[in-house]
Amino acid sequence: MDFNMKKLASDAGVFFSRAVQFTEEKLGQAEKTELDAHFESLLANADCTKNWTEKILHQTEVLLQPNPSVRVEEFLYEKLDRKVPSRVTNGELLAQYMVEAANDFGPGTPYGKTLLKVGETQKRLGGAERDFMHSASINFLNPLRNFLEGDWRTITKERRILENRRLDLDACKARLKKAKAAEAKASAEHELRVAQTEFDRQAELTRLLLEGISSTHVNHLRCLHEFVESQATYYAQGYQYMLDLQKQLGRFPGTFVGNAESTSPPPATTSPTTVAATIPVVPTVGRAPNPATAVEGALNLNDVKPPASGTRKARVLYDYEAADSSELALLADEMITVYSLPGMDPDWLIGERGNQKGKVPVTYLELLS
């Protein structure tokens, strides 16, 4: 008990001495030991690293999980050292709704078939998003958190100790200046030497920790490269999935064509009512041939004649590359003549341009009456 009381009294005296020194420094009544310029530079670099790491970490978390409630829930699970429950991604949930809707509308209908195809792609996109989030969390977020919760806490602790050692050192210097008697001066000089030794030792320890920030930058640089690689993989997968979907929809019977009036001005010579198509698929090289019906397969383009009901003019909305010799390649904004034949797939027409003739997809055309 005596020992504890003495230690408590000693600690209280040290705390009071530091408080007095700190207050006098703020009031300009006491001198302060300044750190060298290199040390100050290390401190500024460490603070800068900590501040930007916090901001990058937070914004990356927002990027991966925009829902703040879910982020808070995941944070609590992590702090409680419990496994975060598995959640479906937005893409996977959308895919689920599309499949259920297709089953209700009828999977054999054009709309139902398209919903199934799009839903399948959304599911693949959701899976790619899940893989990206997992990879980014392991390879990027965790190292940033480890720095803030590990190395930075150690640095902060040692900096606080260094500040206390500096206050003790400056308090000893102040006492030495005030000492008059020889015995008091000797005691103050001894305390000053001890305080200086402790300050130098703590300064060296803190310096080593601060210099380790450069290694932290190297580690974070490597993690950043891994984050970019995983993000690039994710976007590349999404791009490929959407290209595949566009190919399927471009050749898929029952592709929707809207009947809204076009807002673009009609040609000067006519006053047509335009029939605007929805955005078509992006043509790509190397597509599979169009699964033509029996009637289309039997067509001989050289023998095809316009029907008695007449033809229509159409403006090409997008470039189209013919998949085979039965199709007509198109260039955006050109005008062609189109007509349909009995038994043809409703998503295709016969197009003529000069002496060239071939099948063309309706979704690439703006039909003019």
Automatic annotation (TrEMBL):
Give the family per the record: Belongs to the endophilin family.
Q: Which organism is it from?
A: Chelonoidis abingdonii (Abingdon island giant tortoise)
- Cytoplasm: present as a keyword of the record? yes
SMART domains annotated for this entry? BAR (SM00721), SH3 (SM00326)
Residue intervals of the SH3 domain: 309-369
Question: Which stretches make up the BAR domain?
Answer: 24-258
Gene Ontology cellular component annotations, sorted alphabetically: cytoplasm; membrane
Entries under CDD domains matching the protein? BAR_Endophilin_B2, SH3_Endophilin_B2
- UniProt-recorded name of the protein: Endophilin-B2
Is Cytoplasm one of the keywords? Answer: yes
Kindly indicate where the leader peptide sits in this chain. Answer: none
